[in-house]
Amino acid sequence: VGDRGWEVHHVTVTRVPGYGFGIAVSGGRDNPHFINGDPAIAISDVLKAGPAEGKLHVNDRIISANGVSLEGADYAQAVRVLRDSGHTVLLVVKRRIQNVQTSSGSPSTPPGHRLTLTRNNKKDDFGIVLGCRLYVREVTREGTGAKPGDIVTRIGSVTAENMSLKEAKKIMDQCKDRLSIVVSRDCSNSNSHNHHQSSGKVGEGGGEYLSGASYSSQNLYVPPPTRQTLEDKSNLAPRGRSRGPLMDVSLSQLDLPATPTVDPPRPPPPRLEDYYSSRRQLYEEETALGQRSSKQPMPDPRFITFQKEGSVGVRLTGGNETGVFVTAVQPGSPAALQGLQPGDKILKVNDMDMKGVTREEAVLFLLSLQEQIDLIVQYRRQDYEQVVGSGRGDSFHIKTHFHYEQPEKGEMSFRSGDVFHVVDTLHNGVVGSWQVFRIGRNNQEVQKGIIPNKARAEELATAQFNATKKELSASESRGSFFRRRRGSHRRSKSLGRDHWDDVVFSDSVSKFPAYERVVLRHTGFIRPVVLFGPVADLAREKLLKDFPDKFTSP
């Protein structure tokens, strides 16, 4: 046993392909604890099923590695020593002594206090005033970091003491996509101190990320909820597995000195943004199609080249959302002889990057190539099976700029200005039609159907604009100059709203493409609303009363 409350362990860890030493470290002289300034190098994560699991614990302080002292070392020096330790490293670490157990085997808990309150008559009180406290009754989604029984002490910047449930709900409803809360957790609900506070921010992923900025002097960390997404990310992984060196992980959030009756807390894992860009891009690709197990590292990309003989002999699946995958290869074709196989993700075709390319665009580009075809592919069977199983592929939105009122059999009609969600640009495996969902009110998908693809739509729109232009030119050529003006004036009055664009843009075929790619955006600022009329005051009061979360009076 070393210092009071600490014990020293000698641990030997062997490097394993795909894991490295299976640990991540934080701290250092140049990156000390943000409150107490502890400069120790600490274990911040231990990969599940890795070589260090069961040997090292999160929050272990590393004293030395292979005889090289790391006490007082900066972060970069510690990582360099560990990476250069060879196949095996002997670590000397110190660890907080575990909880002192009672005779029954459970941690000792403070005894309760039984009080007897009296009063002289029913009209008097008992000498105390009870208050209501907000607490977490139930956790409906995993990964939030909250636990049932947590006492909520602050919601956003407002203290939750004596706050009613209705007031708390109103504050939470006013938050858009991020909410910061502070909770208090007693020892019966967790292994931390009696009053553990945490600040949780609900981000886009719906999870809660703990922040040390609002911790009190007694605060300890709870296990971070997002560790699963980082199980295959070790900042001591072997160089062969990583596609680039890993950046120094800035983790200064180590636990504070605790009594021997407290379990060592867990600091947060390495932050995702602390990896180099190549690593971050790899993580984003894996997240889009499901997280990949650390036991199955991706194969290296392959270069395949062959001479086109007639057809390409390849069938594709996927699209701009998931990437383009090979789903079938004609036996005996040049592509098959060169090793192209189902499950290969096409990264490049003749130096053309296939990222964001729709399935139709990929097929048309392959068909347009004449002789030699050069492919860079990567075998990603797991991602391929997810694409096939989910039916995902293409996904983007378009806005139409022409009328399609006499559709072909099986297709939907539409008007200029309609919005569609395109989910398949190669419907039934044939070029010419797109499978879409019509977007109705409140941006809901209201109807599924087929519309012409972009090439056909351009032809239809061109023909429509040319016909309108010809009709307007013929009508304006009749009569004198004044009659043409009067006729144009009368005609403009009779034109409906749907045909007004035809007149405005009659001097050219079209000011817009037949289909325009669009993205739904929500304004990130408060917009002023001005009400006029005799009931403006009543309308303003009703809006403020019925929708206090959406309207406010300046």
UniProtKB/TrEMBL annotation:
Keyword entries, A-Z: SH3 domain
Tell whether Oxidoreductase is among the UniProt keywords. no
Q: Does the keyword Kinase apply?
A: no
SMART domains in alphabetical order: PDZ (SM00228)
User: Segment Disordered: which positions?
Assistant: 100-119, 187-274
**GO cellular component entries:** bicellular tight junction; plasma membrane
Domain (PDZ) ranges: 10-97, 114-187, 308-381
Question: What GO molecular functions are on record for this protein?
Answer: cell adhesion molecule binding
Tell me where the transmembrane regions lie.
none
Picking any one GO biological process from the record gives:
cell-cell adhesion
Q: Tell me the protein's name.
A: PDZ domain-containing protein
Q: Which organism is it from?
A: Bracon brevicornis
